[in-house]
Structure formats: structure tokens, C-alpha cells
Amino acid sequence: MPIHEKSLIREENIRTRDDLVIDGVDVSGHWSTFIESRVVTDYNEDLEDQIAGLPGGENIHRCWQCGSCTNSCTVNALNADFNPRYWIYLIRTGMESELLRDKDIIWQCVSCNKCTYVCPREVAPEGVMKATAHWLELMGHTPKSPSTLFDEVFSEQVIKRGKIEESGIIRGFFKKTGQPLMQNWLTTMAFRLFKKLPFGMMFHMAKSTIFRPKTKGWRKSQLAIEDYIIEQDTKHRKLLGLDKPTSPTPQASNDNATSTLVEAAE
Amino acid sequence: MTKLLSKDKKYKRVAYYPGCALEGTGKAYDTSTRAVGKQLGLKLDEVKNWNCCGAMEVKNIDPKIQTYLSSRVLSNAVNKNKHDVVMAPCNGCYHNLKKAEYDLENDPATKEVVDRLSTKAGHKTYEAGQAETIHALDWIKDAIGEEELSRRVKHSLKGLKVANYYGCMYTRPRHIFPEKDQGPGSESTSEPHFMDDLLATAGAVNVDFPLKTACCGGAHTLSDSDTSTKLVLNIIEAAEAAGAEVIATECPTCHSGLEMHQIRAEKVLGRKTNVVIMYFTQLLGLALGVAPRKLGIHENVSDATDLMIDKRLLWAT
Fold first, then answer.
1. Does residue B299 lie within any of the structural domains?
2. Cα separation of B61 and B141, whole Å?
């Protein structure tokens, strides 16, 4: 499988001239070689440390840029812009504004672990993707992704009861993301299942919706986990300089810079 | 520990960790696993008062909480059930228990957090090495073996063409499965074959299926459905192209993902596929002569009835 890499020549950097005549020769058109020169001044020197301080990002410093992660990536095969190697490079060099161009797709990592399997340097790129997605949300660069919302609905149930009940999670997730419960594929699925009259299963499902499953004596585990989450959250916010709740100004300006970039890209 | 007792004796009586999915959408996998165990004379002792392992979700909140959840399951199996082998048929549970074992042994920071949470929660801590986690495939393969299994087959699967789908969590990442890739007799992480071996013994023909360990997008099955649908469609179409009549699964998340996105691909992308999706334990159970209803075949969304009647496999009662 070839390594899919994004083109370094971006559309918005291509110069277009409608009436360019040089030495009597008409050379009008798109010129990808006339790239505007660019000086990077907005390095975020703390970026690598920030990602490394979030769960999953710990080993980012080990990366050798071999590209095995991108080559093996499940999502990259569907979308060539999904490029873990490139993002690791951007994070390590502090090119935050470049990284933010891809902020809306980083959460799409499906955790298949192919990258972690092939990585010769034990970077665990899958973990780095999760840490980066987490960072984007903590810094306010992206809203919570559907994946994060799902993780939250799921984890909330586990932490509260010790076990999950799937239909409750599906309902909770659809509600949180404003999707209708009656999606055509879901009704078809239910119809195909129930026409075979699986009475035992129907009884079992009804039972677990009413008497939701719970681990006995879970309360103390719940409290221990909740304390730990607060402890970690405080640690992460401190690391990212977010512990002062009254600092919307630098973040907002950062957001504006990003959206201008995105507009330019579009 | 494993060397003292031969695996076939050790695995005849194991602690059983079904996990949440096997009590919900994967109920048929639970039913068929228990039925196959009973038919083969293997004893399953359900882990007492177990909890969720955290699946693919809790690790995104914090991986150490996930390790704590898995360690509590292992601790209960060791201290309450008095077992040193835990069998988990769900790839997600199996993977998480394996990962917990690895992290508790190799990462002091994780060990510290897990011990702290266990003490606060008031139960015994789990120490790496106290138990061995195995998959349902290891369980049948090592407790019974192919020779014995072939003697127990009552109704051969008669050349039913099967694509064996293992998914991600059974083999990746390599480092949490130290017993795999150990040469002849051991499982391979790049080309897993335990399911192929068992179903071939039961009389199935394993087709040459290149996407055995491809990803079905199970982690984002609802949160990024379009990606999952594309990934599943790839898997199903590759299985069909290889000539498979059935895709055999070994994970409730993969199984329901394949079923759901097979329908979704039909509804959203207009691509209809005909391959049937079944748990490998259901196929094995049919071969061993267990009644289809006791294997929960009617509880699958993917309808296997016509194919089974065609193949004269439903007479095996």
C-alpha cells in the first residue's frame, strides 16, 4: 500500500494570473510554483509538552517520522487528509496553526490500533490521536465531537452503575446529539429481528430496560473513580494554563485566527 | 504457573466473564458460548459481581480508569471465584483484561493509581500474574483441541463457505499478547488462524479472506456512522468476493456492527449484500448437534434460516 501524503501545495497558495505576459509569451493561469513565501512566527513551543501531558500522548517524543502509522491507518485509507505522522510532526515542531487546519477530523480515529501495532518506536499513535482530540476540546478549538459525547454517555453509566445497558446509551447519545431515534436502518433492523419472534431475547431486553443492570456494592468504586477524574482534570487544566477561569480573551483571539484560516482554506 | 498444569486440564474449568454486550445485543453469543461449553463438558463459572471493562469508551476519558475497571474483574475472579483462568468471549473485554495485565506489570504509574482506587473502593487489589486471560477461541482450542473436537462433531458443516473475521482487538497491539506469535501451535497476530482451525474441524471450508483483522469501525459505530458503514461494506464485499456464504465473528461489537451497517449500507448507499453473519460459537454448536434455538440463531438480525435450511444444517437437532 502506498503512503498517502497530503500535497504540500495548497490551493489557497496557488497564484492565479489572468493576464500575465512575459517576454511576449502569455503565461496566464494557475501557477503552483508561485507559492507565496511564508515565515512561521507563531510556534507554540509548549505544544508537544501539552499533548504529552494528556493521557495517550506520553510517548510522542519517541517518533522518528517513518510514516508507518499513516501507511497502516484505517481512516487514512478513506480520507487522505487523515495523517497521523504529519500531525505528530506538527505537534513536535509546535506548528499549532497548521495542526488546527485539520482540527475537525482528528477525532475520527477508530482506535483499530494498526498504527500502534506497526510503530517501531512504541509511540502509540492511537493514544496520541486521542490526546490531540482531547487537547483540541480542552483548548476550545473544537466543540465536543460526537465520539466524545458517546464516550461521556457511556462512561457516565459505567461509573454510576458499574455496568451498562445498551439501549439506554443509544437513547442518551441520540438525545445528546439531537438525532431522531427512528432512523430507517434502525427500524429495519428491529423489524428483521422481531419477525423471527425471539421471545427470550425480547423478554431479556425489556427486563434490562426496566431493571437496569448494576454491580452490587459499586458505590465506593464510583466515588473513588469520581475523585480521580476531578484530580486528573485539575492537573490537565493546570498544564494547559486553563486553571484561571477568567481568560477568555487569548483563547477567543486564537479562535478567530483559526476560523480565518479555515475560511481562507475554503 | 501455566507450565505446571497442562492447558487442556487447566482450561476445562474457567472463570467466565461475559461482559455487558453479551447481556444485551450480543445475548446470542453468550447463549451459544454456554451451550457449546456444556456440550463439550467444559465448566463455566461466571465471575462474581462483575463490572464493565470500560469497552472502547472509558479509555478516552482516562486509560487508567479502564485499567482499574478490568483489574476489579480480575480481582473478583481470583479472590471471589478462586480461579486463575478468566475466559472472555468478547474481543473488547478480552483486550482490556490483557491490557490491564500488561500495564499493571510494566507501568508503575498505572499500578499506583489502580491500587489506590482498589483500596478506596474497598476490595482486594489485583496483582499481575495472578490470573491468565483467554479468549473463547483459546478455550476451545486448548481445552478440547482439534482431534477431540473432530470426534465430537455430529453434523458436519458440509463445506459451508466461511470467512473468518477476527477484528482489531483480538490481535492488536502485539505487546499485550505475549503468548501469541510463539511459533507452531500458537496464535499469530498478523494472520490469526484459531477460528479457521476450529471451523475447518467442524467441516466448514475457510475461504481466502484478506480482511480478517480489518477494522469495522466499531468504536464509532454510532458517532461516525458513515465511516463505519464504508469500513463494514469493504469487509462484507471482500468476503462475498472470496466466495463466503457466512462471515463468522468472535466479538459482539464486530457482530452487531456488521449487522447494523450491512442494513445501513443498503439503506444509505443502496448497496445490497447477501452474506450471512453468525457467531463462530453458533456454527460450532450446530456441528456439535446443539439445537438452533439454544444457539440463539433466531436472535441474530442477519437471517441465517434460509442458508441453514439450504445446507440441511437445521436438521441437526
1. yes
2. 36
Tell me how far apart the alpha carbons of residues A184 and B283 are, in angstroms, rounded to a whole number. Answer: 30
The answer to whether the Cβ–Cβ distance between A75 and B227 falls below 8 Å is yes
Cβ burial of A77 (10 Å; 0-12, 13-18, 19+) is middle
Question: In sequence order, which residues have a C-beta less than 8 Å from that of residue B284 and are 6 or more positions away?
Answer: B32, B36, B140, B198, B199, B202
Question: What is the domain range of residue A171?
Answer: 147-219
Q: Are residues B99 and B161 in the same domain?
A: no
User: Which amino acid does the sequence have at B4?
Assistant: L
Three-state SS for B276?
strand
For residue A263, tell me if it sits in a domain. no
Of the candidates A164, A169, A229, which has an alpha carbon nearest to the alpha carbon of residue B65? A229
> Cβ of A225 and B21 within 8 Å?
no
- Tens digits of pLDDT across chain B (317 residues): 445 567 778 899 999 999 999 998 999 999 999 999 999 999 999 999 999 999 999 999 999 999 999 999 999 999 999 999 999 999 999 999 999 999 999 999 999 999 999 999 999 999 999 999 999 999 999 999 999 999 999 999 989 999 999 999 999 999 999 999 999 989 999 999 999 999 999 999 999 999 999 999 999 999 999 999 999 999 999 999 999 999 999 999 999 999 999 999 998 889 999 999 999 999 999 999 999 999 999 999 998 988 988 888 875 44
Q: Report d(CA B135, CA B141) in Å as an integer.
A: 10
Residues A160 and A177 reside in one and the same domain: yes
**B77 lies in which domain range?**
7-135
- Using a CB-CB cut-off of 8 Å, the residues of chain B touching A130 are 59-60
Give the three cell numbers for residue A196: 423471527
How many domains does chain A fold into? 2
Taking CB atoms and an 8 Å cutoff, what residues of chain A touch B69? 158
DSSP bridge pairs for B278: B248
